[in-house]
Design goal:
Length: 308
Amino acid sequence: MTQFKRIKRPVHGVLLFDKPPGMSSNQALQRCRWLLQAEKGGHTGVLDPLATGLLPLCFGEATKFAQRMLDADKRYTATLKLGATTTTGDLEGDVLDVRPLLASRSEIDAVVARFVGEIDQTPPMYSALKHEGRPLYEYARQGIVIEREARRIVIYGIEILDFAGDLLTIDVRCSKGTYIRTLAEDIGTALGCGAHLTALRRTATAGFSIAQALTAEQFDSMEQAERDACLLPPDSLVADLPAVTLDCERTVRLTHGLSVRFPENDAIIASLRLYGDVGDGRSSFLGLGELADKTLSPRRLLSTVVHS
């Protein structure tokens, strides 16, 4: 039987994907990349298989700006089981210790509030953080504990959404690098009963909301043209940055890697969006530039013109 190689094509844009439970971030990427027949793709930070929710996937030229997603603030809905700790800090691990929950609701409120602000957090062993080229979870599965340094993170806010029996559901707004399973364990320790994570859902990142995301079932059921239409343009990843539009002459110079004079603005801006006239009457996103001393320099440009 003759096998036909699936043709890959240049696809440029961002898919807001609602990752289901049990699927790794890379599996989500490869599934959507296959459906789009995209040449190049990348995800914007790992969501554990247990976790669900918003996972922006970048394709083609959009991958050049994926780092901004990694550095962005996040928002999660997390459910904690109070009174039990596990080897992994979530429900997939073996139970280590069981203790009664003696704290009242007001005491729980007070303890949770203590974690808002700048705090030091030690990354868990069951994480994708790497040590000597290997993720920590590989060491953990072998019973090896690697010493980890605490990191300074920021919890902007925690709201208790529900408390019933031994289950506590919270809404967390936090900085990059925050491990919610560690936050769950630390809250349990502070309450004196222990805790572990039973559910986690990312609801927002970098200005994007879960309400904008497509489920795997929705994306699977679409025709190719419909899938393409769901992609946000690459510049959606940098929409928070100031923007300038260049005339045709300066567009040509800049896209050839040359700096241009920009006397219209004497500010110093480390990153700004660049749009330019490429001769077809439409404004096109060129990439990122840097402005200093009335000189505009290219910083990270697209290899392919993507029209806005």
